Amino acid sequence: MTHLLSEQEIIRREKLKELQSLGIDPFPAPAYPVSHTAAVIKDSYTEETKASFAQVCLAGRIMSIRDMGKANFAVLQDSTGKIQFYIKRDDICPTEDKTLYDIVWKKLIDIGDIIGIKGYVFTTKTGETSVHVQEWQLLCKSLHPLPIVKEKDGETYDEVTDLEFKYRRRYADLIVNPNVRQTFINITKMKNAIRSFLNGIGAIEVDTPVLQSIPGGALARPFITHHNALDIPLYLRIANELYLKRLIVGGFDSVYEFSRNFRNEGMDRTHNPEFTILELYVAYQDYLWMMNTTEQLLATTAIATNGTTINLAPPYKRIPIYQAILDHTGIDISQKNEDELREVCQSLHIPLPPGIGKGKIIDTIFGEKCEHHYIQPTFITDYPVEMSPLTKKHRDKPGLVERFELIINGKEIANAYSELNDPLDQRARFEEQLQLMERGDDEAMFIDHDFLRALEYGMPPTAGIGIGIDRLAMLLTGNVSIQDVLLFPQMRPEKAMVAEGE
């Protein structure tokens, strides 16, 4: 199937041919000697600094043009923002040959084209800092028109809001919606702040395998692939936990990784099949230490990214999960068995997927009836052992484990444990997961025999945490959908593209 060109696309291709016929390369190879950015000029230019801006060189995309006959005002956008420039026929064509202006600039240049300009900075009669162009060069001809976005007084007020367009054509979204670009700049600041904090407490950043022979470390459905040379199935990782704990066994005291994980699950405002988790493991610490550290980490990160309407300053509330369920359902489930829990779900009108056990049922009750109530940061603590196959049993409370989940704005942001380091207990927990898998729970854990062998060498008492980086980014940038904090969220292939690929 051939892509049908719109009228504008056809016109731009004709302009491309005309440029080439004039001997102008629409995609020149040499580097362009940029000396200034739009932001530097607008932030630094004054009458006092005027002399230092007598010759500037910028490059960027044309975002608007105001035709004034033998002169034009236009707007150039680079990675730092926008700046107005003034281009006059006699300045760029001092000889009798006016082709570069009358033909090239006036007829063959479009909004969206990338150009380079050289000139001097001045202030217009209306007080706008601008560049008076003395030379210009086409650096890239745009063959696809940009979506029309309206602005007034420098503020964008008619942004592209079509979600299909925004997520599928993120490159165009970034061009026309400057606030979107700022979101991803803030996410980078967030990650840098986290790295700085963790490096400051002595943690070492590491990398672990994305392709794994066993999809361990979480309760999730994996993606399966095949390695041709080894002739074995492999799984895209659902978590990196078991590999990081192998490193604690190996003698590292503290390791972390920004892990790109993959889970073959549904998609909604808080779930994408490909996402980022920060996992941190620290030897000789427990979940109580990790709670305090998490409070400090998030408070520091919020400052670095200009904060949020949520108050991330410590301390956070700490509520046991059974108490949370009692608070929001009026039912004490702490002594109930699996059949009784199913009856509770029926009375609460909570549907249950087939094959799940006691732990998943409790998790479902909490997710349906409790989680959305916790807007300000809250640690939900002391989970039942059935919910936590990788977690150390509670030192004081039989039947529970030393675990917390951090809930903010009604969503889980982090999950942390005092890590289970008893290899015999861990084997028994894995075998319980295997039984759940045989019952039909397709998110139950596999038995990782090499990880059990690693534990048999001895792993010190360890605290571990996984923080959902994308959900934290949503919180700190004020976005309500995970797709808004992923540069390229997963989408169905375009029908035309699929047909064309065939």
Describe what is shown at a glance.
This protein is of the alpha+beta class. The chain is built from 16 helices and 18 strands. Strands 8-12-13-18-17-16-15-14 form an eight-stranded mixed β-sheet, with helices on both faces.
Notes on the protein architecture:
The protein is an alpha+beta fold and 502 residues long. It folds into 2 domains: 7-146, OB fold (Dihydrolipoamide Acetyltransferase, E2P) (Beta Barrel); 180-501, 2-Layer Sandwich (BirA Bifunctional Protein, domain 2). 34% of the residues lie in helices and 24% in strands. The protein has 16 helices and 18 strands. It has helices at 7-21, 38-44, 89-92, 99-108, 163-168, 170-176, 178-200, 241-249, 287-304, 321-329, 338-347, 358-369, 423-439, 449-457, 469-477, 495-501, and strands at residues 56-67, 71-78, 81-88, 114-123, 129-140, 150-152, 155-158, 204-205, 211-212, 224-227, 232-236, 254-262, 274-283, 317-320, 378-381, 403-408, 411-418, 462-468. The protein has an 8-stranded mixed sheet with strand order 8-12-13-18-17-16-15-14, sandwiched between helices. Strand 4 (114-123) and strand 5 form a beta hairpin. Helix 8 (241-249) runs parallel beside helix 14 (449-457), helix 11 runs parallel beside helix 12 (358-369) and helix 13 packs antiparallel against helix 14. It is elongated.
